[in-house]
Amino acid sequence: MQDCIFCKIIKGEIPSTCIYEDEDVFAFRDINPAAPTHVLLVPKRHIDGADTLSDDDPEHAALIVKLIFTAGKLARELGLQDGWRLVTNVGEHGGQTVRHLHIHLLGGAALGDFGAKLEFRK
Ligand code: AMP
Question: pLDDT at position 1, please?
Fold first, then answer.
């Protein structure tokens, strides 16, 4: 998608610290880390968010499985043997600031509520 910052990162038009790439998935360091290790995993194909996943698209389910499997592989490679967290924010109330589906991989410390965006506005 033309104006999507993550599509530009995937195409190399905006620099990023890429740590993994295959034909479907791109993973890079979050520019504003919320934990000692903070990686974003994104599908190369633009999908707005988890709210636009659909049974009608046969590729969607396979992509989600691949993103989560890849997160597990990267967590092992990054030495997160004591545990880690996956988060995906959806829409305005979910705190999604970039409208390209992404999964946050957080670890490297006991997280508690750290990085979970559990707070809410009254
Ligand atoms: P969310 O708030 O869940 O939509 O997450 C978007 C994430 O993208 C935030 O954690 C940002 O720090 C991160 N982010 C935004 N721009 C960049 C960038 N150019 N490179 C790396 N991470 C970014």
Answer: 83
